[in-house]
Amino acid sequence: MRSQKIPVFILEEHNEAYYVWTECVQNGMLPAANNVLYHIDEHGDMGVPRFNKSINCVNAAEQREVRAFTHEEIGIGSFIMPAMYKGIFSSIYWFKVQHKATKRDHLM
Predict the structure, then answer these.
(1) End-to-end alpha carbon distance in the chain
(2) What's the pTM value of the predicted model, to 2 decimals?
(3) DSSP readout, 31-81?
(4) Which 8-state DSSP code applies to residue 102?
(5) Per-residue pLDDT tens over the stretch 17-70
(6) What residues have CB less than 8 Å from 92, skipping those under 6 apart?
(7) Side-chain half-sphere of 26: how many Cα atoms within 13 Å?
C-alpha cells in the first residue's frame, strides 16, 4: 500500500490561513471550490471583515497581492468568511471545546 503525503502548514496568525488556502488552490493542492472546512477552535473566526479595497480586485494568481491583502485587510477573527465568499468552502463545521458545566441547583 502506497502512503500519500499530506502537506502541513505552520502559521503564526489565523488569518494567514486565507493566503495558504488560495496558494493551495493555485498549486492544485486544493480544489478551487466547494470544499468543507472543519474549524477546531474556541472562537468561530467567522466575523465579517470591513475591507478598504475589494476582495474581487485581488488577482488570486499573484501571490504577493493575496499575501498583502491577507495581512492588510483580513483579521484573525474574520478570515473564514472571505474564503466562503470566494467559494473555496461551501460548508463549515465548527468544533468548540465544551467546558465543564457548573451545577447551580443549590442556588434555586
Answers:
(1) 61
(2) 0.82
(3) -SS-EEEEEESSS---PPP--SS-GGGS-TT-HHHHHHHHHHH--TTSSHH
(4) P
(5) 999 999 999 999 999 999 999 998 888 899 999 999 999 999 888 999 999 999
(6) 36, 37, 39, 46, 80, 84
(7) 13
